[in-house]
């Protein structure tokens, strides 16, 4: 049975016992020895495959080259065996916090892995790099890794269900620091006191504004969750050494809620598993078939459908306007409601274009497909007929789509919209879609075969065939892996691939 934990701000003179603080409640969940259900184990395997897929596709991109160069500028730390970095040889290791950094950037770069959307937004797969890095360094086995990842997903999803960060322009990774710290605590079998202190430090060091997702979006978008994972690893290390954190971190008079979120009169009800209740939150999450912001997934699928049914829509001469009626979030973050001129700029960065639903819908409508590289090429964005169609597309908030976006009923929750197309001759065409085809309730829900196919597609250009098979065989035995096998849970690039990639020089 899920327990709802009521959270509010307390004045300094009020007594808030530690056992009533949210960070302590999270630590109690992390220390609960409950076993992980079989279907949750299967999904964890899927998401490790998914992370490796998108990391493979990113191995030679600029942010990953920089993050990997930073990681390998630091030696393996004492106290453990070190951790692997995506693409590198298995015996070429770095310290766990830097592996979490490099691998976190690789996983996040293409905006192509799993998602959960509720009161806040999240990519819960961002928990995996720091937890896996610590597992490798500390010599933990597959069962320990499964338990740690289950906790990371559980805590992030529970926080996302209850506490909105974006409403106050705080970036969503502020929920990731605490969840990753809790997951590492479970992995290592730490006591509640240590995990409590680590959660407080991880939250305190990972609150930042959402400007990273506004205007001309920079390469920091991929680094933000990696930074949160790195901070979580370091917070656990400090807490294990007896160092304490600001307390109460959530509820304090000068804490996160009072000054960064809803203020001194705020209150939230955070759902957390009861003692002995299995951690199943990963099953509420969903991955991406397409490399783009999650709210674009369903609309890409609708554009593909319209491309097949009405190919004339690809010609801007046949279209007067396209209005996408959708949720508040889609309209204001990736739609015209953001009021970002960059979302209509053919010279915008890839990071900006993957947060522009007018651009994404135009390209998918013309191509009948979406590609993680080709759909973002500067030449593709600058094509005159694309620009003409793109600039005819706007979004509008629809209260019903907003209500469905925030619904807690899985059968009703939706991330799509209704598209109204006015043709040049004055006639109109209307169609809609609620969830992406790959969503658990979509037309073609992702299952193990889809995750494996996605991995093969993205890995084949950069991994040898034998390496693809080695990784897939290993990861699908996850719960029974020895510590030595967990240490091999990475991907090795084709010979010469990383050596040919730029390794930009910096301070280290």
Automatic annotation (TrEMBL):
One Gene Ontology MF term: 2-methylcitrate dehydratase activity
Enzyme class: lyase
Enzyme Commission identifier(s): 4.2.1.79
Lineage top rank: taxon: Bacteria
Reaction catalysed by this enzyme: (2S,3S)-2-methylcitrate = 2-methyl-cis-aconitate + H2O
Span of domain MmgE/PrpD N-terminal: 21-268
Keywords annotated in UniProt: Lyase
InterPro entries xref list: MmgE/PrpD_sf (IPR036148), MmgE/PrpD_sf_1 (IPR042183), MmgE/PrpD_sf_2 (IPR042188), MmgE_PrpD (IPR005656), MmgE_PrpD_C (IPR045337), MmgE_PrpD_N (IPR045336)
Record's subunit section: Monomer.
Protein name: 2-methylcitrate dehydratase
Organism: Microbacterium bovistercoris
């Amino acid at each position: 049975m899920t327990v709802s934990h009521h959270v509010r701000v307390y004045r300094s003179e009020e007594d808030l016992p530690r056992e009533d603080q949210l960070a302590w409640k999270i630590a109690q969940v992390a220390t609960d020895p409950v076993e992980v259900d079989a279907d949750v184990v299967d999904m964890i395997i899927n998401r490790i495959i998914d992370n490796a897929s998108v990391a493979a596709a990113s191995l030679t991109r600029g942010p990953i080259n920089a993050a990997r160069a930073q990681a390998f500028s630091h030696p393996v730390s004492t106290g453990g065996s070190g951790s692997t970095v995506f693409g590198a040889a298995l015996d070429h290791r770095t310290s766990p916090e830097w592996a979490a950094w490099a691998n976190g950037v690789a996983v996040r770069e293409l905006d192509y892995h799993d998602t959960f959307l509720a009161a806040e937004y999240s990519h819960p797969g961002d928990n995996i790099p720091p937890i896996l890095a610590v597992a490798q360094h500390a010599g933990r086995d597959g069962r320990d890794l499964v338990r740690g990842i289950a906790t990371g997903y559980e805590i992030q999803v529970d926080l996302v269900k209850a506490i909105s960060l974006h409403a106050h322009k705080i970036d969503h990774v502020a929920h990731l620091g605490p969840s990753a710290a809790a997951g590492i605590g479970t992995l290592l079998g730490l006591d509640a006191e240590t995990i409590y202190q680590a959660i407080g430090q991880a939250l305190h060091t990972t609150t930042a504004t959402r400007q990273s997702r506004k205007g001309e979006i920079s390469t920091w978008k991929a680094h933000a969750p990696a930074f949160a994972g790195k901070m979580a690893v370091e917070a656990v290390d400090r807490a294990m050494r007896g160092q304490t954190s600001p307390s109460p971190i959530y509820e304090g008079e000068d804490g996160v809620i009072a000054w960064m979120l809803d203020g001194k009169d705020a209150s939230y009800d955070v759902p957390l598993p009861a003692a002995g209740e299995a951690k199943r939150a990963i099953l509420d999450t969903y991955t991406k078939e397409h490399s783009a912001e999650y709210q674009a997934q369903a609309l890409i699928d609708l554009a593909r459908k319209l491309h097949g049914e009405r190919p004339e829509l690809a010609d801007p001469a046949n279209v007067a306007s396209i209005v996408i009626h959708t949720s508040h979030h889609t309209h204001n973050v990736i739609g015209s409601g953001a009021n970002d001129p960059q979302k209509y700029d053919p010279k915008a960065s890839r990071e900006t274009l993957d947060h522009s639903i007018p651009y994404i819908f135009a390209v998918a409508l013309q191509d009948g497909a979406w590609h993680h590289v080709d759909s973002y090429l500067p030449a593709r964005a600058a094509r005159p007929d694309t620009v003409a169609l793109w600039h005819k597309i706007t979004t509008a908030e629809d209260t019903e789509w907003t209500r469905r976006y925030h619904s807690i009923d899985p059968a009703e929750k939706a991330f799509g919209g209704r598209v109204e197309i006015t043709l040049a001759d004055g006639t109109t065409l209307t169609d809609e879609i609620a969830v992406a085809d790959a969503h658990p309730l979509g037309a073609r829900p992702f299952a193990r075969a889809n995750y494996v196919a996605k991995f093969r597609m993205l890995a084949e250009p950069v991994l040898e065939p034998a390496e693809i098979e080695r990784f897939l065989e290993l990861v699908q035995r996850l719960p029974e892996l020895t510590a030595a096998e967990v240490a091999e849970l990475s991907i090795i690039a084709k010979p010469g691939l990383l050596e040919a990639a730029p390794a930009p020089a910096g301070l280290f």
